[in-house]
Design a protein that fits this description.
The chain is 60% helix and 6% strand. The protein is globular and about 75 Å long. The chain is mainly alpha-helical. Helix 7 (185-205) crosses helix 8, helix 10 runs antiparallel to helix 11 and helix 10 (281-295) crosses helix 12. The protein starts with 14 loop residues before the first helix and ends with a helix. The protein has 14 helices and five strands. Among the domains are: 7-119; 281-409, 3-Layer(aba) Sandwich (Collagenase (Catalytic Domain)). A three-stranded mixed sheet has the order 3-5-4, with helices on both faces. Residues 164-400 form the Peptidase M3A/M3B catalytic domain. Keywords: Hydrolase, Metal-binding, Metalloprotease, Protease, Zinc. This is Peptidase M3A/M3B catalytic domain-containing protein.
């Protein structure tokens, strides 16, 4: 039973279209000779279905006001996503019961075993509900704006003001932003209360004591425990917190203020103008491409592919979801970067960071099975944080970046 080549061909598929492919996999006899072919068929199906879901999810974040995109995504989650997860569980159980251990699949078998043990069909609609609540939150944040200097501005677009040397302007914008956020306090609190209830039910359905235990298993944190984290927390409290306090006191003294306030935490302590690395998104893209090329031409070429392929949505605007992420079009094996740039240095760091995730996608594309390209959060951040560090020597214009030598040193 042949699958379409691209996800564009199946954007309107219902579960009835996907189901025969899962049924075929579920009824195929598993043995040493056929396991590679079976895994490839399963992987191809996962890639297509996941890419459809990714396309729909991205559409809800690039424009949180698009009700058609939101409703289409929610219908997909309910009508396709939920039965697909149940069908995936059947395939996982079949593979585990077979006792087969495909070559290069040891880590994936461990992950599949953990997923199968945690599965509860009662949680499928709750996973959908949690995603819907996330969309509601994005809609609230995406709609927030205030008037500043005679213009409507999103709250993110006011970040540069917090870097200005004029303390009165910083305080004024901080208070306006805080006031606007507080206007949505009840709405956001209600979303959180609903989400908390959903998460408690998810944990109970999976026979977990609480949602932390559920997440620990779901995120497949095999190598360390909650107690290890609590010990790390204590170390931060004992060592890092006092050091942070000393740095804040140093900042207060350099700024010559009686009390350090929230609007004093980002401004340059030497009274220098804020770094202004770019005036528009094209300059941000071009500058980071030069940096990636300086680190390694292969990285620059990959980023150029993203620019040419429409795989970037970097600028902030009203109605856009908050934050930033890098996701993957699983069938094409290509990354997509989403962020909210407004012209500050943090935007450069964010794109370098997300670029690391993107290059991870490019480099892992050679792996044959979709399951092999699923990476735990901790290791995924190795690529992104490493990219920030590898790019650091090239921030100056003389090295391909954005700044003078003096600015780069800041």
């Amino acid at each position: 039973m042949a699958l379409p080549a691209t996800s564009e061909e199946i954007l309107d598929w219902s579960w009835d279209d996907y189901a025969p492919h899962y049924e075929s996999l579920a009824t195929t006899e598993l043995d040493e000779d056929g396991i590679s072919d079976w895994l490839q068929r399963w992987s191809d199906l996962v890639e297509l279905l996941s890419e459809v879901g990714t396309r729909m999810h991205i559409a809800t974040t690039v424009d949180t006001t698009d009700e058609v995109a939101r409703d289409t995504y929610h219908k997909f989650l309910e009508d396709v996503g939920e039965p697909a997860q149940a069908a995936e569980q059947q395939l996982k159980e079949r593979l585990l019961a077979s006792g087969l251990e495909p070559e290069g699949f040891t880590v994936q078998l461990r992950a599949i075993r953990a997923e199968a043990e945690l599965f509860s069909e009662a949680n499928l609609p709750l996973f959908t509900e949690s995603k819907k609540l996330a969309n509601r939150y994005d809609e609230v944040i995406g709609a927030q704006s205030i008037e500043w200097d005679g213009e409507e501005k999103t709250l993110t677009q006011l970040q540069p003001v917090m870097l200005e040397t004029d303390r009165e302007r910083r305080e004024a914008v901080w208070r306006l932003v805080a006031e606007r956020r507080l206007a949505d306090r009840d709405t956001i609190n209600n979303i959180w209360r609903e989400l908390l209830e959903v998460r408690c039910r998810i944990a109970a359905n999976a026979d977990c004591a609480d949602f932390r235990e559920f997440c620990w298993k779901a995120l497949q944190r095999f190598d360390y425990s909650p107690d290890d984290c609590l010990e790390f927390h204590d170390a931060i409290a004992d060592v890092a917190l006092p050091a942070a306090g000393r740095l804040l006191e140093q900042r207060r003294e350099l700024l010559s203020v009686g009390n350090l306030r929230p609007w004093d935490l980002a401004v340059d302590t030497q009274g220098r103008d804020p770094l202004a690395p770019f005036d528009n998104i094209a300059e941000l893209e071009a500058g980071c491409e030069r940096i990636f090329n300086a680190v390694a031409p292969e990285l620059g070429a990959s980023f150029s592919t993203m620019r040419e392929g429409g795989l970037l949505d970097l600028g902030n605007r009203k109605g856009k979801a908050p934050g930033g992420y890098c996701t993957e079009y699983h069938r094409q094996r290509l990354p997509f970067i989403f962020m909210n740039a407004v012209g500050v240095h943090g935007d450069v760091q964010t794109l370098l960071h997300e670029g690391g995730h993107a290059f991870h996608v490019f480099e892992s594309a050679q792996l044959p099975y979709a399951m092999q390209r699923e990476v735990g959060m901790e290791f995924a951040e190795v690529a992104s944080m490493a990219m920030e560090l590898l790019a650091a020597p090239y921030l100056a214009k003389s090295e391909g970046g954005f700044y003078s030598t003096e600015e780069a040193a800041r």
